[in-house]
From TrEMBL:
Alphabetically ordered keywords of this record: Coiled coil
InterPro entries, sorted: Probable_transposase_24 (IPR004252)
Region (Disordered): 1-78, 226-246
Coiled coil: 187-218
Feature: compositional bias, Polar residues: 1-40, 230-246
Name of the protein in question: Uncharacterized protein
Organism: Escallonia herrerae
Pfam families: Transposase_24 (PF03004)
Composition bias, Basic and acidic residues: 60-72
Domain of life the protein comes from: Eukaryota
Signal peptide: none
């Protein structure tokens, strides 16, 4: 019994020694970090200065009033105000296409998107009104039959200015210049295209000159045959067999406003042109030269 009590007492002493051993919990002696020591030594973070207290500290009415005045000031700085609201450029373009019957130009789109919805279609701002006046003036100077197609130098670009890189006015986001008016050739490509056109023009001119030479030779051969046939006839025979024409059979002299027909040299039965005589006065000038007398 004594031995058992002694052994149990020794066990209790050993357990107490294990629990109070500083080597297992002292971070300095054991070489391990102590979490409790780190928490105590950590510096408390302090938030820097902020303006939120001054903003939210104002009365609600003054805060809203300040925001409203700032928005008004920003709105007054805008030169152009779009009046289509949430309607996209694609919808406006489709509606304008149905109204005009053809693809609207960028000028038409600008006027549609920057005009008020009243009866007179008043421009939204003074700057928009000035742009529209300049556009109408340039459109009136276009030649008859020409159209203001979307291009790099159309009326809108001439008045408002060139488009920024990768953007096209009146088409919205995602549309580039190459999508609207095609790929713009570089300087080297432009030079190559110009050289090709020059070569083609020279070839066409050469073929045209060759054709003219062929027609001239054909005309000379035909004229030579006619002269040879006329020389083969004797003068006596030609005089004796020449039909006598009466005064009624003689051709009537030309008069003003007579309709005349020009016959082909190669084929006398073929009419190549028709015209109306405007004057038979030899002193009348046409193209800087007088008509002169017949046979002169």
């Amino acid at each position: 019994m004594v031995s058992r009590a002694r052994s149990s007492g020794e066990n209790m002493i050993e357990q107490s020694n294990v629990q109070t051993d500083p080597l297992q919990f002292d971070g300095i002696n054991s070489g391990q970090s102590n979490p409790a020591t780190e928490v105590n030594n950590t510096r408390k973070r302090v938030r820097g200065p902020t303006t939120m207290k001054s903003i939210w500290g104002q009365p609600e009415g003054e805060r809203i009033k300040g925001i409203s005045e700032k928005n008004k000031a920003n709105q007054n700085q805008k030169k152009l105000v779009q009046t289509t609201g949430k309607e996209s450029y694609a919808l406006v373009r489709e509606r304008k296409r149905a109204e005009l019957g053809h693809e609207p130009s960028r000028m038409d789109m600008f006027i549609e998107c920057h005009s008020k919805k009243d009866e007179n279609r008043t421009p939204s701002t003074v700057e928009a009104a000035n742009y529209m006046a300049q556009m109408h003036e340039k459109r009136e100077k276009l030649s008859e039959g020409s159209q203001d197609l979307p291009a790099e130098n159309d009326i809108l670009s001439q008045v408002v200015g060139k488009d920024k890189y990768g953007r096209v006015r009146m088409y919205g986001l995602g549309v580039s210049q190459s999508d609207v008016w095609g790929q713009i050739p570089s300087r080297k490509q432009s030079q190559r295209i110009a050289m090709e056109w020059k070569e083609n023009c020279e070839q066409m001119e050469e073929r045209f000159n060759n054709r003219i030479d062929e027609l001239k030779s054909m005309f000379l051969r035909h004229r030579g045959r006619e002269e040879s046939q006329s020389d083969a006839c004797s003068p006596a025979t030609s005089i004796n067999h020449r039909p006598q024409m009466t005064s009624t059979q003689l051709p009537r002299p030309f008069r003003v406003r007579d309709v005349v027909c020009l016959k082909s040299i190669m084929n006398p039965s073929e009419t190549v042109a028709k015209g109306i005589i405007q004057s038979i006065d030899p002193s009348t000038e046409v193209g800087g030269k007088s008509l002169g007398r017949i046979g002169a």
